[in-house]
Design brief:
single chain; mainly alpha; DNA polymerase, domain 1; two-stranded parallel ribbon; 5 helices; 50% helix
Length: 106
C-alpha cells in the first residue's frame, strides 16, 4: 500500500512540475496591434519597403505596391487611404491601423 501511495504522490509532483514549466516551454503570445500602439509608429508616406515589411501582414510584394502607389498618386492623406493599395483589405488594415501614421509625430 505504501508503494502505491508513493507512486501516486510522485506522479502528482511530476505533473505539477510539468505544469510549472509550460510558460517557459511555450512560445510567447504574439502581440497585437493594440498592444503595440504605444510603440513608435511607421510613417507610410516616408517608410522604405523594408520598414513597411515590419508591419504585420505586409510582405515584400505589398510593401513594393505601397511605395509605387505613393510615387504614382502622391502621399497618403489618411491612414485609411492605404486600403487603396491592392492586397490591403480590412483584415490587414485592422492589424496595422494603430501602427501607422501619415505625417511625422513628435
Amino acid at each position: 500500500m505504501n508503494n502505491h501511495l508513493f507512486i501516486r504522490l510522485s506522479s502528482i509532483c511530476i505533473a505539477i512540475a510539468i505544469l510549472a514549466l509550460i510558460p517557459t516551454i511555450l512560445p510567447a503570445q504574439e502581440t497585437t496591434a493594440s498592444d503595440q500602439a504605444g510603440t513608435s509608429q511607421i510613417n507610410i508616406n516616408t517608410a522604405s519597403e523594408s520598414q513597411l515589411t515590419e508591419l504585420p501582414g505586409i510582405g515584400p510584394a505589398i510593401a513594393e505596391r505601397i511605395v509605387r502607389h505613393r510615387q504614382k498618386v502622391g502621399p497618403f492623406k489618411a491612414v485609411e487611404d492605404l486600403k487603396q493599395v491592392k492586397g490591403i483589405g480590412d483584415k490587414i488594415f485592422i492589424k496595422i491601423k494603430n501602427l501607422i501614421v501619415t505625417e511625422h509625430t513628435s
